[in-house]
């Protein structure tokens, strides 16, 4: 929805996160005991950096991303 307002770098990063989330969901649904794969995908997601603010706010409305930098 926000592709036009994102830099190419951010769009590519967010798209990669999206693909990893789809892969993670597939593992949870089809092979939920494959902890190695789950951890691998979660680590790859972390390497992508912070998810889009829209998603974070939707999932955790009281979560303040700005305060993380102060920790």
Topology, number of strands: 0
- Judging from the principal axes of the Cα atoms, what is the shape? globular
Radius of gyration: 14 Å
**Major sheet:** none
Which range best describes the helical content: under 10%, 10-25%, 25-40%, 40-55%, 55-70% or over 70%?
Answer: 55-70%
Structural class: mainly alpha
Order of helices and strands: HHH
Terminal CA distance reads 32 Å
Q: What percent strand?
A: under 5%
Low-confidence stretches: none
Tally of separate helices: 3
Mean pLDDT: 81
Summarize the structure.
The chain has 71 residues and is an all-alpha fold. Helix content is 61%, strand content 0%.
Describe the protein.
The protein has 71 residues and is mainly alpha-helical. 61% of the residues lie in helices and 0% in strands. The chain has helices at 8-30, 35-47, 53-59. Helix 1 (8-30) packs antiparallel against helix 2. It is globular and about 40 Å long. It starts with 7 loop residues before the first helix and ends in a 12-residue tail after the last helix.
């Amino acid at each position: 929805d926000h592709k036009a307002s994102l830099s190419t770098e951010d769009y590519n990063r967010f798209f990669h996160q999206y693909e990893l989330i789809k892969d993670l969901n597939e593992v949870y649904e089809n092979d939920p005991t494959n902890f190695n794969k789950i951890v691998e995908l979660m680590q790859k997601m972390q390497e992508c950096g912070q998810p889009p603010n829209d998603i974070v706010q939707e999932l955790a409305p009281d979560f303040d991303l700005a305060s993380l930098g102060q920790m």
